[in-house]
Amino acid sequence: MRAVQAFARRPSVLLLLPAFAITAGIFAAAMLLLFSYSAYTFRGGQLTEEVSFLAWRKFFTDPFYWGVVGNTLQLALGVTAFSLLVGYPAAYALTKVRSQKLLIAAYIIIFSPLLVSVVVRAYGWILLLADSGVINTALRATGVIREPIPLIFNNTGVVIALVHILLPFMIFPILSGLLQFDNAQREAANDLGADRIQTFARVVLPLSLPGVIAGAQIVFTLAISAFVTPALLGGGKVQVLSRDIWFNVVDVNWPIAAVEAIVLLALALSALAVFDVVGRSLRSMRTLGTPRPRERSPGGPIDILLRLALIAVLAFMLSPLAFIVVNSFNSAAFNTFPPSGFSLRWYQFVLSYAPFREGMVNSLIIAGASTLIALAAGTPAALALVRGRIVGRASLRAFFLSPLIMPKVAIGIAVFILLIKLRLFGSLGSLIMVHSMLSLPFCIVLLTASLVGVNRTQEEAAMDLGAGPLRTFWHVTMPQIRAALIVAAVFAFITSFDETEASIFLVRPSNTTLPIQMFLYLEQYQNPTLAALSTLLIALTVVVVVVGLRFVRGAELARLVARGRV
Amino acid sequence: MTSDTGRADHVVELRDVTRAFGDVLAVDHVSLVIQQGEFFALLGPSGSGKTTTLRILAGFERPTSGDVFLRNKRVNDVPPYRRETNLVFQQLALFPHMDVHDNISFGLRVKRMPAAETRDRVHRALELVDLIGYDRRRVHQLSGGQQQRVAIARALVNDPAVLLLDEPLGSLDLKLRLQMQRELKAMQRRSGTTFVYVTHDQGEALAMADRVAIMSDGRIAQMGAPEHIYSRPATRFVAHFIGDTNILPVTVIGMETDGLAVLEAGGLRFRSAASEVRAGEKRHVSLRPEKIRIAAAGAGDAHPGTVTDVTFLGAVTRYEVAVAGDIHLAVQAQTESEEHFRRGDRVLLSWAPSAPVVLSD
Fold first, then answer.
1. CA of A239: how far to CAs of A145, A163, A354, A526, in Å?
2. Full-model pTM
3. In contact, A359 and A512? CB cutoff 8 Å
4. From the centroid of its chain, how far is CA A253?
5. Diameter of chain A by CA atoms?
6. Rounded Cα distance, A365 and A344, in Å
7. A189:B106 CB<8 A
């Protein structure tokens, strides 16, 4: 009874409680623990809880670590620069596509790799870039080269694969900025005597800079903390912070791993801050009045070049996935191209290989359960954030979203230490909770964006007609945010199902999830088994997305995407 | 002079211009000539083709057929950035990433005009639109009226052969709009530039323009001085669109010896100074409410009626009067006049033979 009264007085507090418990209890607690562990001592292969700051001293005095930081930043800068170079023309070309069907196909091709596990994509790039891979084989067959070009196990391969993974994050903000562009601005520049190139350089490009900054910000932040891609495509030769953290965790040198995680976090936050400052100085660039879209393009050689660039980018996005599917039917026992014959033996092997089967079961359980928890905690929290009278709404929202900006590797080691402390390490339940925590920010972002669009008056009308808060939510609010709920569920499920970079710290190799089984397998073996498994996973992803989106109308989805940009 | 040039002293000429969007003719065989220094208004409801006509002049639309001449040169194939026209956009389209100075000097800079001359011309443009001292303001720090002036200065500074304005006052509130109308007219006089002004607001067109072309369904319904169009509307559309009027279907009864036509509408019989009518014809006439005198009693050619509605509009009062044969006439009288009427009052209506204008459709 008292709970009901409390709810009547401060309903927001109760609504926020589950999400707050998850974020504070797992994320914040783990991060605090990480900080304390960075002060502890690792001496002679032994970890003691003696405060010495030895790890900090070692990190800042040993040139090895400076080299790792330097290479991490250099790699991230390279990835950001190439993503921009490739992504801008692609985004610009997309604004010129007139056919709705082609446009949707292009969007799907560009964004679909996001739905496929990083392990799968890294594997696809290994198929393409290896010495006996598709590219080197093709170049040798045509006589362009005699010796294979080393495209893999060096920075080149890592940059290519990371650009592939992060390109959607670059294209999307640039594209949405360009779509907001008011065509009257272009006409005004033309009218005042500027030709196409002058108009682009003086008006279109400067006005699209906020999108460029936003894209670069996301890409850079994700690139410095990437783990799976540098680990698999670097082949031990590419030293980055995330990979060093992993080695130190394996070596039980937690203090230095904690220091590295904190440095990584600091780098990510500084990058975010720097890009924010630059972005803020561009704030004044918003267009006055309602933008009018472009009706048609003048055509000519510029348009042909842009179209070719777009086709090249689409081919780039699709190729690793395409070659995975092709290679899964390869009869040879190692990755060759072209395939030496047709065979289904790798599918038979995948289905009979126990670690994959167990990993699959674990992954499905974890993804299903964590999706339900994230939605159950995220929906009331979003409702309270949008509707409730809350003190410090902005900081609360920032708190809920903070796991998004943390490098996954840092979260992984922090939660790892927390679970060891709580003696919960290795349990399925703990992984479910961690994945809920990782999915929760997405759910809150999507649901708050959608709830903002729900007309308050309709809820008031329902209450006026006698519906209580729960019935109002169920009959009036929920139907209107259905699309967001479904998209959030699909997103949470896939996030959890593909999660590798944090989870790899949290599982025992004997009882683990599917992507981690794949990661471990890929570190040791190079045969088409993974191609078969990846093909099955791509098919599964397609099914999940198609089934999920069957329940969402296109218009709702478009609205969600438009509002989802922060 | 070769056949593809227009006549001298014409700044703008459209010769039989048509613009089709699919099956729809947005502009349908339009011909018009605009003189140097004229303030010309294209007036019409939305969808009448006035904006398309303006965009054909600016070069953003190409005519499907017909020719466009600017200063006697055929410009059909000249892109907007090589035309001597400048457009003040409906949404202004000021560049948000530039300040006032950079917006105004944009056209001069892309033409690589020397810095000293650019400075001079920007200064004069700022002077013309009364924004001296605002050069370094960001455009979103300006009020709506000030943004408006920047947009005008940005176009005028290029010294265009024609300044094109696409409903530039549409986003302003009424009071500011009236003020900007006066200022625009003054700017036009001071700069001596030819203005082509698109609007759907008849008051705006009548107040500013030397000449008005009224557009409907892609065609020019009537073109001429505002006073002429107002007092001698050619069609029912024009009569309705410009000002308030009574449209009556009439039958031509016959012609009198003094040249006046006798017309009959329902039970109402009156005379009109129309020349091009034949007896027995069925036509429409426009009778402006303010041309009708309303009185309690009178002599001569007066029509009895009953007041059915009274609307007080400030300086004038509008009456609705039922007259013979179920005809309702709107009548407008000065509020300050001696006689006032109420609903149900019996009144007499009268008008001069010059008041009813026989329309062509």
1. 29, 18, 33, 22
2. 0.78
3. yes
4. 28
5. 82
6. 28
7. yes
Amino acid B3: pLDDT: 42
- Taking CA atoms, A157 is separated from A231, A336, A519, B33, B37, in Å, by 11, 18, 17, 67, 67
Mutation to test the B interface, candidates A209, A288, A294, A297, most B Cβ within 10 Å: A288
pLDDT digits (tens, 9 = 90+) for B204-261: 999 999 999 999 999 999 999 999 999 999 999 999 899 889 999 999 998 888 888 9
The least confident of A486-495, B43-52, B106-115 is A486-495
On the question of pLDDT at A4 being above 70, the answer is no
pLDDT over 50 at B1, yes or no? no
Neighbours of A74 (CB within 10 A): 13
CA distance B286 to A376: 70
Residue with the bigger pLDDT between B238 and A393: it is B238
Q: What domains are defined for chain B?
A: 10-235 (3.40.50.300), 244-358 (2.40.50.100)
Q: What is the ipTM of this complex?
A: 0.76
Chain A residue with minimum CA distance to B110: A194
Identify whether the C-beta of residue A437 lies closer than 8 Å to the C-beta of residue A406: no
Dump pLDDT digits (tens) for B133-150: 999 998 888 998 899 999
CA dist A275 and B80 (Å) reads 37
Cβ-contact A195, A84 below 8 angstroms: no
- The rounded mean pLDDT for chain A is 85
Residue written as token pair 């007259």: B323
Taking the Cβ of residue A281 and every Cβ of chain B, the question of whether any pair is shorter than 8 Å is answered with no
Residue linked to tokens 């974020």: A23
Sign of CA dihedral A413, A418, A421, A423: negative
pLDDT of residue A291: 66
**Could you give the count of Cα atoms lying within 13 Å of A48 in the half-sphere of its Cβ?**
10
Residue among A120, A133, A147 at smallest CA distance from A336: A133
**Burial level of A250, CB count in 10 A (0-12/13-18/19+)?**
exposed
**Contact yes or no for A128/A135 (Cβ under 8 A):** yes
User: Which range, of A74-88, A271-285, A483-497, averages the lowest pLDDT?
Assistant: A271-285
SS3 B330: strand
Full 3-state SS string of A262-324: HHHHHHHHHHHHHHHHHHHHCHHHCCCCCCCCCCCCCCCHHHHHHHHHHHHHHHHHHHHHHHH
Residue A250 carries which side chain, given as an amino acid letter?
A: V
pLDDT at A552 over 80: no
For chain A, give the percent of residues with pLDDT over 90: 28
Q: Which residues of A touch B96 (CB under 8 A)?
A: 207, 284-288
Q: Which residues pair with B224 in a beta bridge?
A: B212
Show the domains of chain A with their CATH numbers. Answer: 10-33+61-329+351-564 (1.10.3720.10)
Distance, in Å, from the CA atom of B90 to the CA atom of B99, rounded to the nearest integer, reads 20
Q: Do A195 and B81 touch (CB under 8 A)?
A: yes
CB atoms within 10 A of CB B119: 15
Position A564 scores a pLDDT of 43
* pLDDT at A560 > cutoff 90: no
| Mode of pairing for the β-strands spanning B303-312 and B346-350 | antiparallel
Interface of B to A at Cβ within 8 Å reads 58-60, 79-83, 85-87, 89-97, 106-107, 110-111, 138-140, 147, 154-155, 158, 171
The count of CB pairs under 8 A between chains A and B is 92
Q: Which two tokens stand for residue B121?
A: 């011309």
Instruction: Tally DSSP H helices, then E strands, for chain B.
Output: 8, 20
Listed residue (A402, A28, A406) closest to A222, CA to CA: A406
Task: Give the mean pLDDT of chain B.
Answer: 90
Rounded mean pLDDT, B151-165: 93
Mean pLDDT for A384-407 is: 85
A565 — pLDDT class (breaks 50, 70, 90): very low
Q: For chain A, how big is the Rg over CA atoms in Å?
A: 25
Chain A partners within 8 Å of B148 (Cβ): none
